Amino acid sequence: MSVVQAAYFDGTLPQAHPAEVYLDTDVIRITYPNAEGFSQTDAWLVQKTRLADWSPTGKTRLQYGSFPHQYLDFETVDYQSVVQPRYAGQPPTRVGKRLWIQEKGFQAILVIVLLLIGLGWSVYRYGLSALASQVVELIPPAQEQALGNALYKQVVTGERLPIDSARTRLVNAYWQAVAVPARFPITITVVKHKEVNAFAIPGGHIVVYDSLLNRMTRHEQLAALLAHETGHIEYRHSLQQLTQTVASYAMLSLLFGDVTGLMAVLVDNAHYLTSLSYSRDKEDQADAFAVEALARQGINPQGVVWMLEVLPQEGASLTSALSTHPETAGRIAAARERVQKVTIEVTGAEDTRQLNSLWQRITDQRRALSSY
Ligand SMILES: [Zn+2]
What we know:
Layout: E1 2-9, E2 17-23, E3 27-33, E4 39-45, E5 50-51, E6 61-64, E7 70-74, H1 79-86, E8 93-94, H2 100-104, H3 106-126, H4 128-136, H5 141-158, H6 165-178, E9 187-191, E10 198-201, E11 205-209, H7 210-215, H8 219-234, H9 237-245, H10 247-256, H11 260-268, H12 280-296, H13 302-310, H14 326-341, H15 349-368
Parallel strand pairs: 5-8, 9-11
Antiparallel strand pairs: 1-2, 1-7, 2-3, 3-4, 5-6, 6-7, 10-11
Transmembrane segments: 106-124
Organism: Nibrella saemangeumensis
Keywords: Hydrolase, Membrane, Metal-binding, Metalloprotease, Protease, Transmembrane, Transmembrane helix, Zinc
């Protein structure tokens, strides 16, 4: 029986026990003086003993058990000559799948601490919105679309928004006729609700409350609203804003490059979508998108101004007069300026007729329904 000297870490004490290690065929016996001074023998199954990839002292280290592991650090240089031939038939296998953090030990902790400091600093310096836009970059379009579908289901059923299917069909037909190109196919849902509201869901869904639709007097307002919401989707504003509301998860997913957990958390927070309010920058960006999109499709971009005159800020129900809302007044002024500068494409009379006839049908539906 071969005996080797080793330092034994029993997994409970930080100090090593000086131990004598007996190498049996299937078992490694470790005899050492325990805390009470008595000789004690622990047994490791050779089959479950692993050769550690890393040891703080650079010595040969065997590892046993689940966390906290037990270790044997071999003091003698004979390890190669004694232990290796002994188990030539069944050498302690290398540790297979281990977490990166276990593998790298202190290095990993250092890297994570540095990353956290960096993240904390950038959040402090640039704010949560910068963090959210970084995280959004990690989400590929296909996943954004799948997330959007889940969010849509969650918000429409969760908020119990009854769908106006007749006007949903007509408004979708209208938007298809306008044909603004976008990264995602846009699906519009008209819901029956007394609030004046509309919101965009990541990945291509737009929800329009019929009360807002009822305020509109021209089809250009509808085109402008849908273009504006499409702008929010195109620029991923709602995804960013939603991510910002679950910032701590966003930070973790940025750290670990894993967005799956974040997705589940976002769906849980879908109800925020109905009341997200965007920064003035984001609203301006979506308004600019709408002015350009309408002009390019040959629709009077003045529709954006007309739309803003009936649209409260997303999420906020229209309780006060719009003229008292400084944000909206500023947006109207900015939109007017943009309309002056943009070049409007000339479209065929046929296209104009089609849009007008669809708008007429949407308006007829309104009359057919009872009001709240
Ligand atoms: Zn908006």
